[in-house]
Amino acid sequence: MRVDAPRTREVRMPLHIKAKKYKVTSLQSGFLVAIIVLFIDQGSKLLVTAQAEILRGGMPIFPGLNFVFIQNAGVSFGLFGFAPHLVLIIFGILICCILVIIIYKNNDLHHNISCGMIIGGALGNIIDRIRHGRVTDFIDVYVGQFHWPSFNMADVSIVTGAIILSFGEIFFKRKEATR
Fold first, then answer.
1. Catalytic one among 41, 128, 137, 140?
2. What residues form the catalytic site here (predicted)?
């Protein structure tokens, strides 16, 4: 008794339809990171704002971390709360524009991703200022009785992006200088 292998047919794509390979460039990665950060920031603030009454008194997550609902007139960590509203918006937009220029002129992945993190965070806080006149903060980190100023995901992204950018400048430039 002979068992034949199942017959397979080769399917050929028409010549005019070609599979495209998409490669994300360094430039695109910076803007993609900015968009992702912006969505995470705005989404988290939307959830927090919907639960504002519950979070006003603080909600313990685990020792050292609470979720709270605070509206902040300043920039990251409440700094410059005395500055006029419009000045902070213009300053944020100016920083974003400078970072966009850096992304366009630079082909370095680490630079562009860190700039994208800063842009996404800055835009998230700018949107809050335009919509609400203040920025929504909700992360409360503390040790004992010492509470760090509350912050949000945009602040996390801005600080992380700045740290990555700084370390990259220090360590990558140092490597290039020794070559």
1. 137
2. 137, 155
Is 155 labeled as catalytic in the residue annotation? yes
**Where are the strands (E) in the chain, listed by range?**
59-62, 65-72, 135-143, 146-147
| Nearest-angstrom CA–CA distance, 178 and 174 | 6
The arithmetic mean of pLDDT across residues 53-80, rounded, is 84
Distance CA 28, CA 31 (A): 5
pLDDT computed for residue 108 by the predictor: 85
108 is catalytic: no
Residue holding tokens 């292998």? 5
- pTM score of the predicted model: 0.79
**Which residues face 28 on adjacent strands?**
none
Tokens of 167: 């370390």
Domain definitions of the chain by residue range: 26-178
Which listed residue (41, 128, 140, 155) is catalytic?
A: 155
Q: Of 41 and 84, which is predicted with more confidence? A: 41
Decide: helix, strand or coil at residue 68: strand
